[in-house]
Amino acid sequence: MPLTDKFGRAITDLRISVTDRCNYKCIYCRTGNEGALYGDLPFADYLRMARVLASLGIRKVRITGGEPLLRPGIADFIRELAQLRDVDGQPLDLALTTNGHLLAGLAQPLKDTGLGRVTVSMDAVDPDRFARITRVPGGYEKVLAGVRAARQAGLGPVKVNCVLMRGFNEDQIVPFGMFAREENVIVRFIEFMPLEEGRVWSPNTVVPLDEILQRMQEYRPLVEIPHAHSETARRYRFADGIGEIGIIAPVSHPFCGHCSRIRITCDGKIRTCLFSVWDHDLHELIERGASDAELADFIRSVVQKKEARHHIGEPDFVPASRTMVHIGG
What we know:
alpha/beta
């Protein structure tokens, strides 16, 4: 039986956070005062979870953090993930999200392990603005080198994610359009969500999809690209065929009705939604010696509790029990 929730949504995508440590302190994510809150698990435990979930219908696995490239042994872990098969006997679709700071020297080794794609978080294409956002001097050049190394290694299409936050980087929209064309990457803009440690989110801080489109159209005409229902990004190419952007708009244009994801945190909890107010402890079952069949039964029961939607901006909205860096990007 495919893994489906009570709303009939097929669960095919898994995100595994392998650490909540990060070498950046981005203003839309971290206060700059908090560090890691949860311990990392042995890679063997994440691998077992992924294997059981693949047997239930997971087809795509994305490795996240924190910053996953901070963990020694990450390449060996990906190599083992690449040996897993989905229910049809096909290799899993493997991707990784990184801030790119350590990527330049690891791009080719990661490709050699069987990794398919990388997404790089990068919130400005101006070095000074980048340093103010990340609070890491000199990081821009390292991330740019990482993006280029990933493209050269064939970890593509390389995607560059930019979280837009009004008052900080909304003036980067057109420069990122230029960057997509010049660097041959897909730039994806993400609406700012209430998942930051400082809890400073308000509707006024969001740069919505329609505004992003208007600003980019003033630069160059766009043509929308059809996308699958479960895709989170609305995709557009420039009318002259050079360059692509995407917009992930969970605040202004929610896509919860087609959500196909579950998440595993670095300490082995299942989260059925980014905005869940509770976790489901899968690792505890492993510690108690549960069989794979028992893990599978637990996963099925948890998936039935998947939320219908988030409630961002509504009067009854309750913030998620963890912030983004402690969930997994």
